[in-house]
Design brief:
mainly alpha, 0% strand
Length: 151
């Protein structure tokens, strides 16, 4: 976690790290809140129409699979080092696209919407990761040059 994207973002600007983590938790959190409301009636404002894509997801056997699959990018941001993040995120997006295209005719269209949501965030993650890597590399070069000069 020490070299992860969220850790580097948190060290640079805490509010940006919170926003990035919220962007990746929202789809899974929304699914779980809808599930709790539909089955246990905890909340009265999360009523999903059974004919909608979210309602069909809640009634399908693939609910937990889809919810956990949407949670993987958040885990990547927490645990994967920055150098490998974009490569693994690309791999996850390809798998998510194939999964959503394969299952869209059988399960629902919700997975396509969540993949589209992650594609829009991916551009910002890629840009921010390049910025963080550039500042990290430049700072380490400056520190190594200063330590050689003082000794």
């Amino acid at each position: 976690m020490k070299y992860s994207f969220l850790w580097a973002t948190y060290r640079q600007k805490k509010s940006t790290a919170v926003w990035f983590s919220l962007f990746f938790i929202i789809p899974s959190l929304f699914n779980i809140l809808n599930y709790l409301d539909g089955h246990y009636h905890f909340f009265n404002f999360f009523l999903a129409n059974p004919k909608s894509s979210v309602g069909r997801l809640l009634d399908s056997n693939y609910f937990w699979q889809t919810t956990l699959f949407n949670f993987i990018p958040f885990l990547l941001l927490i645990f994967v080092p920055q150098k490998n993040l974009i490569r693994l995120f690309d791999f996850w997006l390809i798998l998510a696209t194939l999964y959503s295209l394969t299952n869209s005719w059988y399960i629902n269209t919700y997975s396509i919407l969540s993949v589209t949501y992650f594609y829009f965030i991916y551009r910002d993650i890629n840009r921010k990761n390049k910025e963080l890597m550039d500042t990290y590399i430049q700072n380490s070069k400056i520190i190594s040059n200063d330590s050689q000069v003082t000794h």
